[in-house]
Prior knowledge:
The complex is a heterodimer of chains A (about 230) and B (about 230).
Chain A: H1 2-6, H2 13-23, H3 25-58, H4 64-76, H5 80-90, H6 100-125, H7 129-137, H8 142-172, H9 184-195, H10 198-226
Helix pairs in contact in A: 2-10, 3-4, 3-6, 3-8, 3-9, 4-6, 5-6, 6-8, 7-8, 8-10, 9-10
Chain B: H1 6-43, H2 49-64, H3 67-81, H4 89-114, H5 118-126, H6 131-161, H7 173-185, H8 197-226
Helix pairs in contact in B: 1-4, 1-6, 1-7, 2-4, 3-4, 4-6, 5-6, 6-8, 7-8
Amino acid sequence: MSSLLALGFDPSFFSDVWSFVDANADELQAGLRRTLLVSAIAIAGAFFIGLVLGAARAHRVPVVSQLAAVYVEVIRNTPILVQIFFLFYGLPQIGVRLEAFTVAWLAVMIWGGAFNTENFRAGFEAVPARLREAGFALGFGGISTFLNVTLPIGGRIALPSSINTYISVVKNTSLMYVISYPELTTTVLQVQALTLQTVEAFTVLAATYLIIVWTLSALIRFLESHLALPKAL
Amino acid sequence: MNLPDWVGDVARYMLEEGLVNTLRIAGISLAGAVLIGVTLGTLMTIRFLPLRGVIRLYIEFWRGLPILVTIFIIYFLLPAVSLSLRFEALTAAAIGLILWGSAQVAEATRGAVQSIPREQHEAASALGFGWVGRHAFVIMPQALRRLLPPLVSLLVNIIQNTTIAQVIGANELLESGERSVERLTAPPPIGLGEIHSFEIYAAVMAIFFVISFPLTRLAAYLEKRLI
């Protein structure tokens, strides 16, 4: 502690940060809530997109599989920030005006859906063919084999990588700063501009993201150890 | 096909200013990220807990923050702490990308170094190599092969994430596109009084796609080929 003091570290820093949070509690809470809301909508959508398109890719459903491949490659090979600009500033030229909130969840949902399609495709393709054959042998049709065999096993294989995608979705909501959607990053920078408490503001901003991201990373490690497939499979 | 008059000037500006700066930030960031990341990742394989702990914290910290927040910290927070830590937008963006990228490379390097069987270490030691010689001449040449596919993927990510520099006003490709949109929107004689945001942002996406797509294919190919 004394060496920290010698470096010019002021122990009252923590109480400064706390009083910053206390004084701006309403704004910060609203910002955090919007970040979580946008993330939740996008994650739910990305889960659904990944499930459907990942299954279509893994089982080579004609047309859908090819369209999904194009969607995945376009999204993965262009920056998400440019996608946000295109949705919010580009589309109005052809008469499509989206609200900031809509672009906020839509952009990260489209982005997360593309990465999730790959996660689920890899998970479904990792299911051994003999398990599906066993399903057919028991008299299940294509869809019931998928629902009862491929999905439970492949979904478990895809879970860690898909949570990684959801973590990136949460982090990417910070980019909504460029369309002035008042999520966490935008809110903290607005508060910082008003209060000029730069150190406190960025400490709170960084700490909040780290808490969210580190919690989700811990969840991945927990699931990886508890949902690992039995060796017999 | 006849293109409108403005296209030539805008394209030249975006490619000569924007794209050049994008590639410059990406090149510097990749070099810095690989240099720092390979060093930290290799050091992490030493069985010395405090060192491991510090590097682990470095990795989790810069991987956990959104890159935008990292760049804001460098561009807005550091000058508030000390005036000597004031950086230009392009530099601040490159530093942010190096911090994030080096964390990614360190984690990948740790895995690659640890994947080399311990017999290789023992054989090198038996030949009289010390820790540095063993890693430089025996372990790293093999680990780098396994590291190549993730490094190509990292390059794609770095190129795409250079656009975040736009937020602090660095004139990379996206910013040069935005400036072109604003210029064209301005009433004559400054601009044309026309909105061309759709075409210009679509073009920015197309340019990034043309650069990234071959690289992601290359990464997939290397992954199949080298392992």
